[in-house]
Amino acid sequence: MILESPAPAEGRFDGTTFVFPIRVYYEDTDFSGVVYHASYLRFMERGRSEFLRAAGVPHQAMLAGERPLVWVVRHMTVEFARPARVDEALNVRTNAIELAGARMRLKQAVLKGSDILVTADVEVCVITLDGKPRRVPDEIRKKLQAFV
Fold it and tell me: Which of 30, 37, 50, 134 has its CA 20 to 30 A from that of 43?
């Protein structure tokens, strides 16, 4: 019997907040069985990437443009409140707060149920592949502005 692979996890919008489900795997934990602090950064990166995809601005579309562009993290402030453990189901909530010039500011939170585990203020910028900042293109700005 051939089993089909399940579709990748998909998030959803709750108003303008993008909610992305994450499962904690063994590889995400440290020797004590709690999520290693750097794993939360990966969880939030996935949340931001899926937010962009769901908003109609996937990374591959930006790379495929006449002038390839990418988002990079410029600044991030993270606050750790509670630990998560292996096999727990979490949600990454992503809110776009501001979209201006070459940057976008977001607030993110990782939750277990209604318990906030980690919060972050994130600033991302658009750059060319050679590292030069560029304004967020108008067509991308129009799509993202609906979520700010």
Answer: 134
